[in-house]
Design a protein that fits this description.
The protein is an all-alpha fold. The protein has 4 helices and no strands.
């Protein structure tokens, strides 16, 4: 089974539904067994819904992509740090 840090490293592709079928299957297996990552996915999906359902949060693609890239870079960086120093913690 994937670790939480490995899950989080692929989380963006999972949400964007661009993860390969094999990766997606591994991520979904991890989600079936990990309550922490279930909460992360649920919270993120709810946040995305809230933001996208309100026009006041509308941003153009050129403004959104840099923010998404920065957030995912931080997630991957923390995941890499966590995998070398022990279990992932919040």
């Amino acid at each position: 089974m994937l670790s939480c840090s490995e899950f989080l490293a692929e989380f963006g592709d999972y949400l964007d539904e661009v993860a390969s079928p094999d990766v997606r299957a591994s991520l979904e297996q991890h989600l079936r067994e990990c309550k922490t990552c279930q909460v992360i996915v649920d919270s993120t999906q709810k946040t995305i819904k809230i933001v996208t359902d309100h026009e006041t949060f509308t941003l153009s693609d050129e403004n959104v992509e840099p923010v998404v890239s920065q957030v995912m870079a931080r997630v991957r960086s923390r995941a890499a740090q966590s995998s070398s120093s022990g279990p992932f913690r919040f």
